[in-house]
Design goal:
mainly alpha; 2 domains; 90% helix; rod-shaped
Length: 192
């Protein structure tokens, strides 16, 4: 390209200085000055400058654009992967949160059931103890009643003996009298 450009520059300079083309002069008279040699020389300069522009401007510019594009693509892909990772982390967090809430609800329900079972067991235990105390109290009352009746019988026997002694005025056989009185009291026992 550089050699072709140098050839065109030299040829254009030569045409501009040495060659006279008739229709170009006619154009110049009409107000359109066209110099074919300068145009060819300008094309030659462009062909020489074009590789330099490509080397020093277009190639670095293209590389910069390519690098910037790849950086942007990498940034967007990283942003997308981060967004996906955040979505995954969010869903994992929500799942863990839901699982934790479910476990907490289960534990609360278990504690409530345990408390209800404990309450029922304590109430049953208290009821059993109350029944036991009642039964014991009834047994003690029955025993006390029996003791009082025995004491009462003995008191009646003693009073009857004393009354009989006074009536008879003499001491009769104490054992025989007691036996007779006891038989009388057993047959004539007071209804409870």
């Amino acid at each position: 390209m550089a050699i072709l450009g140098l050839g065109l520059m030299a040829g254009g300079y030569y045409i501009s200085k040495e060659v006279h083309i008739g229709f170009l002069e006619d154009l110049a008279k009409q107000g359109i000055p066209l110099d074919l040699g300068k145009t060819i020389s300008a094309i030659g300069v462009f062909l020489i400058v074009l590789p330099l522009l490509r080397l020093f401007y277009f190639n670095p510019l293209g590389d910069a654009i390519t690098n910037r594009t790849s950086e942007l693509e990498n940034t967007f892909s990283e942003a997308e992967s981060l967004r996906q990772e955040m979505q995954k982390m969010k869903s994992d967090y929500e799942q863990r949160l839901n699982a934790t809430e479910a476990r907490a609800r289960e534990e609360i329900q278990a504690q409530i059931r345990e408390a209800q079972n404990m309450r029922q067991s304590l109430m049953a235990e208290a009821s059993a103890k109350a029944d036991e105390f009642l039964k014991k109290a009834q047994e003690e009352i029955a025993m006390e009643k029996e003791r009082v009746l025995v004491d009462l019988r003995l008191g009646v026997v003693d009073m009857t003996l004393q009354a009989t002694e006074r009536i008879l005025g003499e001491n009769v056989d104490d054992a025989k009298n007691r036996k007779l009185i006891q038989e009388f009291i057993d047959t004539a026992e007071v209804k409870q």
